[in-house]
Specification:
The chain is of the alpha/beta class and about 350 residues long. It is built from 17 helices and 10 strands. Helices cover about 50% and strands about 15% of the residues.
């Protein structure tokens, strides 16, 4: 079984990541440097790196979603030029590669950047490609891809999805469309026209659904064609634990299981915002063992102060996972990824499986 004494092994094993926000993963040092460059250093709550990290994490741990989302004002401020976007994208991917991630999908919302959609996307994917090359030079491998989000509290989702339709033809790093931002009061059906375009144009779609009213948001996301659900932690409201530890499922949970709709779970973040009371109460462990298609994700590495390896280690420890179960979480994500099948299959066969085989799985 996985134990505390082999924490470092979680950095070494290949990992996957499907739910990671670009504006939630900046290095603290980068925030300080760019803020100084753009004359906004005084606007930060602190210029001490440790204190600044603590401030971001306090926002995540407040269990106040609006306070949590407010922390992004400072990261977005550092991402308002193509040069800065390329840097942030590069650093995100190289940091993931150094943490053992071999397949990553990172998302951003072009509406939040004061430039043409194409300019921001091109800067980000250029950063991804530069990081992939740098990782290879360091003897590491990572395949990074971009999910483009529309902000569900705004009225530009049709504009965003039409951009994705066009841009995917010129940039194969762009792999999917998402609805992000505050969810309560902003169900997917408010963006039905954009989601219809996505279905008609055969776009990959993931939709955030992790806030109240619980099952209603998840069901609405499924109804409007989501191939994956962002978080989906509140699906546990449609389950009841039996005496033997297995789950009795309601109709929505059974549908998600039967159709193997992927749940992009981020246990630390889900706990911090109050969706569950503690990591041990998170449904990811029981969902995994019931056969749900789930994965471990970071959501916002800066705010939650996590890495893919620390998050995987925390989940493995909380639920006493075997290495075989850890491998299943990694493969679940890659199998449910939005990059071309041949790329994903090659990563599983040539990178993931040999590494876990060496651990006896």
């Amino acid at each position: 079984m996985v134990s505390e004494t082999i924490r470092s092994a979680f950095v070494a094993v290949p990992k996957s990541l499907l739910h990671d926000h670009l504006d939630g993963g900046l290095r603290v040092a980068t925030i300080l440097e760019i803020s100084d460059e753009i004359g906004r250093l005084a606007s930060l709550p602190s210029t001490d790196p440790k204190a600044l990290q603590a401030w971001f994490t306090a926002g995540a741990e407040s269990r106040d979603l609006l306070k949590y989302l407010a922390t992004f004002e400072h990261t977005i401020e550092c991402m308002q030029s193509a040069v800065h976007l390329e840097r942030v994208a590069y650093e995100a991917v190289i940091d993931l590669a150094r943490d053992g991630v071999v397949y990553a999908e990172i998302r951003y919302a072009p509406e939040l950047h004061n430039m043409a959609f194409a300019e921001s996307a091109e800067a980000i994917t250029a950063g991804f490609r530069r990081a992939e090359r740098a990782a290879m030079e360091e003897g590491r491998f990572i395949s990074a891809h971009l999910i483009v989000c529309a902000m569900r509290t705004e009225r530009r989702s049709l504009e965003v999805v039409e951009f994705v339709v066009r841009q995917r033809n010129v940039d194969d790093k762009i792999v999917a469309f998402d609805l992000a931002g505050a969810e309560t009061g902003w169900p997917p059906r408010l963006h039905a026209e954009a989601l219809e375009v996505a279905r008609r144009e055969h776009l990959n779609v993931t939709i955030h659904a992790s806030e109240p009213p619980d099952l209603e948001l998840i069901a609405d996301a499924v109804t409007h064609g989501a191939h994956r659900i962002g978080h989906g932690v509140r699906l546990n409201r449609d389950t009841t634990k039996r005496g033997d530890g297995s789950l009795a499922l309601g109709r929505l949970a059974q549908h998600v299981l039967d159709r193997q709709i992927h749940l992009e779970m981020a246990p630390t973040c889900n706990t911090q915002i109050g969706a569950v009371n503690s990591l041990r109460e998170h449904p990811i462990g029981s969902f995994l063992r019931q056969g749900f298609n789930v994965s471990v994700n970071t959501d916002n590495r800066l705010m939650s102060h996590v890495s893919p390896s620390s998050e995987m280690h925390a989940v493995a420890t909380a639920f006493d996972l075997s290495w075989g179960e850890v491998r299943q979480l990694v493969v679940n994500a890659i199998d449910s990824g939005f990059a071309p099948y041949s790329i994903r299959r090659n990563i599983v066969d040539s990178v993931v499986n040999p590494a876990f085989a060496a651990l006896g799985t």
